């Protein structure tokens, strides 16, 4: 689950080697890093797998761990160094696994703990690390902690959650992202109280003010890290700290939700405690999903001197252009340049354009019309893999998979879209407009099954898939692209290899060129005496771009998504052309 701000508000309010060669049996305390330190998690490429949609092994229509295991050689062929697995814990699936009922069990649909152990071993044998989601802002209402908490006001688990006794009257309003009434307080008759849920009613918020709860979470984290997991993504963690008095918030606070929900009074105390007790004792990476409202807030999470987390995963870039008019390239450049500038000397960023909570990247930031889909997919890949920061890449984007754009609400499965639709319906709002927005933004657009080949259901399952397969799988699939040296897939493989070969693309200083150009995104990366130029034509037209004084290409491009490239005083760029060329 992402920290949905502009995107979800728009959707709802229309009227993440044998054994583990990296984990040590008795790990030493991890020293505080510096921004200049070379570490594996800065140099890797993270590939995100949405388990339900990747590969089904038993014909029940749901992807599973054995399915992923069957595709491990494919993952190695991509050149990625880490896999981020969306939640695979036991869950009622109200929010596709982000509502966890048992943190130490595998969701039966996905397999068994033995399957997980085999997956982890298989990844490590291929030199690939595993990053897991830690969903600890909330649990499922079917978790035993919550069952006990709601059984009695005197239950020892009562303070694992946030409660408001009904005799005090209705609680002060709090907004819920997924609730059909946007109400984050749900009345529970068993104890005549309300419980807090920032997300769906089946996702009660955990009470991090309770030290017993925090120790339970730390114990659970150690359980997975002791198995050999190599990284943790802290889902929605910036929301965990609350003011338990729940003061009245100003009218319209939900339009600036990060300000009022994020960065509570003890958030960084909890992170520093977590680092001391858990994270510092393992050679892993830790990622902050969402990190305040801007670079200054984000730095508090990942400044090495603060000993909290390693990497910030911000949403300002992917939140851009969620409306029907899309985005302006000048805004896109400004956002990514501002974040890079803020992290130039310390801290570290994730670089991404898609995940399980946003549309397919080629449908939002590229051009998914058949004539331009391949070129624009390759351009976006070039951007992600040549910026400073750790690249995150969502499964299927290496093929140029596109939004499915369902016509009917009955085809959707996501709680955010279904409850948002019901809310608009209850209010007598414009359902046609809602569905038009969902075609652009709904999370199910990126969750359709992986398109392996042109056989039935794209080779994902022999049964009925849990979510419909995009019909374009017959011409857009892995099997066909694997055989085509010029495919989007093989360009991705070349790009990951290029980044691995040239550390200037990892650690090099970033400098934006021609900031006001509304069509061309150009920048240099410089490390020591090595300097490289990246030029991206973000349009479906041919463009000319004069080289700035002092920049002289040297040799053949490292990457080029067209067959040819003529270096000269002015570059002639084809539609959606991307070129990475060394400079003298």
TrEMBL record:
Pfam family, one: Alpha-amylase
GO biological process: oligosaccharide catabolic process
Endpoints of the signal sequence: 1-23
InterPro entries cross-referenced by the UniProt entry: GH, GH13_cat_dom, Glyco_hydro_b, Malt_amylase-like_C, O16G_dom_2
All residue ranges annotated as the Glycosyl hydrolase family 13 catalytic domain in the record: 48-447
One annotated GO molecular function: alpha-amylase activity
Sorted UniProt keywords: Glycosidase, Hydrolase, Signal
Family annotation (CDD domains): AmyAc_SI_OligoGlu_DGase
Record Gene3D superfamilies: Glycosidases, Golgi alpha-mannosidase II, Oligo-1,6-glucosidase, Domain 2
Family label: Belongs to the glycosyl hydrolase 13 family.
Protein name per the record: Alpha-glucosidase
Organism (species): Hymenobacter perfusus
């Amino acid at each position: 689950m992402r920290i949905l701000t502009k995107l979800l508000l728009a959707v709802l309010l229309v009227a993440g080697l044998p054994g583990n060669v990296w984990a040590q049996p008795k790990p030493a305390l991890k020293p505080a890093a510096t921004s200049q330190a070379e570490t594996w998690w800065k140099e890797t490429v993270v590939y995100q797998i949405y388990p339900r949609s990747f590969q089904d092994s038993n014909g029940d229509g749901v992807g599973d761990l054995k399915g992923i295991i069957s595709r491990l050689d494919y993952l190695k062929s991509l050149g990625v160094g880490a896999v981020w697995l969306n939640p695979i814990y036991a869950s009622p699936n109200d929010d596709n696994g982000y509502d966890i009922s048992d943190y130490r069990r595998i969701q039966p649909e996905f397999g068994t703990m033995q399957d997980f152990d085999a997956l982890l071993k298989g990844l490590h044998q291929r030199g690939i690390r595993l990053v897991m989601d830690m969903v600890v802002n909330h649990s499922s209402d079917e978790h035993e902690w919550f069952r006990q908490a709601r059984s009695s006001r005197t239950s020892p688990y009562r303070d694992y959650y946030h409660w408001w006794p009904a005799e005090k009257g209705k609680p002060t309003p709090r907004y819920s992202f997924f609730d059909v009434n946007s109400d984050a307080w749900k009345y529970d008759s068993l104890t005549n109280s309300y419980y807090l849920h920032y997300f769906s009613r089946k996702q009660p918020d955990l009470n991090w003010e309770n030290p017993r709860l925090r120790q339970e979470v730390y114990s659970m984290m150690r359980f997975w890290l002791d198995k050999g997991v190599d990284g943790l993504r802290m889902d929605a963690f910036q929301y965990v700290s609350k003011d338990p008095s729940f003061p009245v918030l100003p009218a319209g606070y939900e339009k600036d939700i990060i300000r009022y929900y994020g960065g509570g009074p003890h958030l960084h105390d909890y992170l520093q405690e977590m680092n001391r007790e858990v994270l510092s004792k393992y050679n892993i990476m830790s990622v902050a999903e969402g990190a305040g409202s801007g670079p200054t807030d984000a730095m508090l999470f990942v400044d090495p001197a603060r000993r909290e987390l390693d990497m910030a995963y911000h949403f300002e870039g992917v939140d851009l252009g969620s409306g029907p008019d899309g985005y302006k390239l000048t805004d896109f450049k400004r956002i990514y340049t501002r974040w890079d500038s803020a992290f130039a000397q310390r801290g570290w960023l994730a670089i991404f354009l898609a995940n399980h909570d946003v549309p397919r990247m080629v449908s939002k930031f590229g051009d998914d019309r058949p004539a331009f889909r391949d070129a624009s997919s390759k351009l976006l890949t070039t951007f992600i893999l040549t910026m400073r920061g750790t690249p995150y890449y969502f499964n299927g984007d290496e093929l140029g998979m596109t939004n499915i754009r369902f016509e009917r609400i009955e085809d959707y499965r996501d709680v955010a879209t279904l409850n948002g639709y019901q809310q608009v319906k209850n209010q007598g709002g414009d359902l046609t407009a809602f569905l038009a927005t969902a075609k652009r933004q709904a999370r199910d657009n990126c969750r359709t099954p992986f398109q392996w080949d042109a056989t039935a259901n794209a080779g994902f399952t022999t049964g009925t898939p849990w979510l419909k397969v995009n019909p374009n799988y017959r011409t857009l699939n892995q099997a066909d692209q694997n055989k085509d040296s010029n495919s989007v897939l093989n360009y991705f493989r070349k790009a990951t290899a290029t980044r691995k070969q040239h550390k200037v693309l990892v650690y090099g200083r970033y400098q934006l060129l021609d900031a006001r150009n509304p069509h061309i995104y150009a920048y240099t990366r410089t490390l020591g005496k090595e300097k490289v130029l990246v030029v991206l034509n973000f349009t479906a037209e041919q463009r000319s771009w004069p080289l700035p004084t002092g920049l002289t290409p040297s040799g053949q491009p490292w990457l080029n998504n067209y067959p040819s490239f003529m270096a000269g005083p002015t570059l002639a760029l084809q539609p959606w052309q991307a070129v990475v060329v060394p400079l003298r």
